[in-house]
Specification:
Length: about 375
């Protein structure tokens, strides 16, 4: 239904049983999350043939899942999951294990996984390869394989095969390097720092953790929510008459930010929704994602090298201004039309965020019309 209306989906597949896990009802075995992703990929192709635009999907998996290697290497060719972006949800505990050079226990359904982990690159149980002269101590970075071809071409005679201390464990530096190598060669998978996402989740009290994002990755949302996006071309605000504050017409930009925030809020009330669950969630949270474009052109007009420290400082100033004014307008709209329905249960989180982080005056009534106001794109 979502693809038929031109929308995309973001889903986490970590709740599905790993491949080979016992399905007790009929004493069978599970086919694993990646097999279900292939089904969604095929369905997306079918819908695409009759629709007005190609469907899009974001598939995500927590790095702790026993099928994480199948997931990382799921797009190691040009033909698999072509209707998907994929990203690994990296956790703080995993990153700590990378830093500390420790083995890492995978788990499923909050319980340690005690079976061997399948490695599609080696087509065998998971192991790492280190130089003989570094054994028995693990090397900081073992031999890295981005795909099966790389594994088959490698001369392993000079390396020691090291198996995990117990089944169900992986070596985090190997997994981290595989993600990087695969992303470099195939542009997949991406990385999402999911614990950091939830540290900035202002709706934790009423809606719980966030598990996934939209297909392009710029909006992390709760289940059945929708990204409502718009962009301001900041290159249009170059002010040749103003020699102060980086030659930007800040008053004009403020006016456009306020108008855009109100416009996007109105979209929520005028839009038609593919599913009642989506309509209900969106109207309870009223998310708005106002972003910017044309930043490179603005740098060119200002004589600033794109990517330089000065351009980063300018980006911080421009986007900080947009965020401040978008929230300012959202509070004004809330006074006029009412705060979004989920707000009261999450008031303490928003009080800290809007007054302390954004910097709006506590004298301004805390009545946000929208659960979010900006986006990273």
């Amino acid at each position: 239904m979502i693809h038929q209306t031109g929308g995309g989906t973001g889903m986490t597949y970590e709740s599905l049983r790993p491949a080979g896990a016992t399905v007790s009802l009929r004493h069978g075995t599970a086919s694993g999350p990646v097999s279900f992703m292939n089904i969604v990929n095929q369905v997306t192709d079918v819908v695409k043939q009759g629709g007005v635009r190609r469907g899009a999907n974001m598939g995500m998996m927590r790095v702790t899942h026993p099928d994480i290697l199948r997931f990382i290497h799921a797009k190691n060719d040009q033909h698999s999951l072509v209707n998907f972006n994929i990203s690994v949800n990296v956790t703080d505990n995993f990153l700590d294990a990378v830093d500390n050079n420790e083995w890492f226990q995978l788990e499923f359904d909050s319980r340690p996984w005690t079976q061997a982990i399948y490695d599609p690159v080696a087509d065998d149980d998971y192991a790492i390869y280190v130089r003989e002269d570094n054994f028995p101590c693990l090397a900081p970075d073992p031999l890295v394989f981005c795909d099966r071809d790389a594994f088959l071409k490698q001369d392993l005679t000079r390396y020691k095969k090291v198996t995990p201390p117990s089944p169900g464990m992986i070596y985090p530096r190997d997994i981290w390097n595989r993600i990087i190598a695969s992303a470099h060669k195939y542009a997949e998978p991406g990385i999402a720092f999911i614990d950091e996402v939830n540290r900035h989740n202002h709706m934790m009290a009423s809606m719980g953790p966030i598990y996934s994002c939209n297909p392009c990755g710029e909006q992390f949302l709760h289940a059945n929510n929708s990204c409502n996006l718009g962009s301001i071309d900041v290159s249009k605000f170059h002010d040749t008459a103003n020699r102060g504050r980086r030659n930007i017409n800040w008053n004009h930009l403020r006016h456009v930010v306020h108008a855009s925030t109100q416009f996007l809020d109105n979209v929520i009330d005028t839009c038609t929704w593919p599913l009642p669950e989506i309509e209900d969630t969106v109207k309870r949270t009223r998310p708005v994602g106002l972003g910017i474009m044309g930043f490179a052109d603005l740098c060119l007009k200002l004589g600033i090298t794109y990517g330089s420290p000065e351009s980063c400082s300018l980006m911080h100033e421009v986007m900080g201004f947009v965020r401040y004014e978008a929230w300012n307008k959202s509070l004004q709209l809330g006074l006029e039309k009412g705060a979004f329905p989920e707000f009261e249960e999450n008031r303490p989180a928003y009080q800290e965020f809007i007054y302390d982080t954004i910097g709006l005056s506590p004298e301004v009534p805390l009545t946000p019309r929208n659960y979010e106001t900006t986006t990273c794109a």
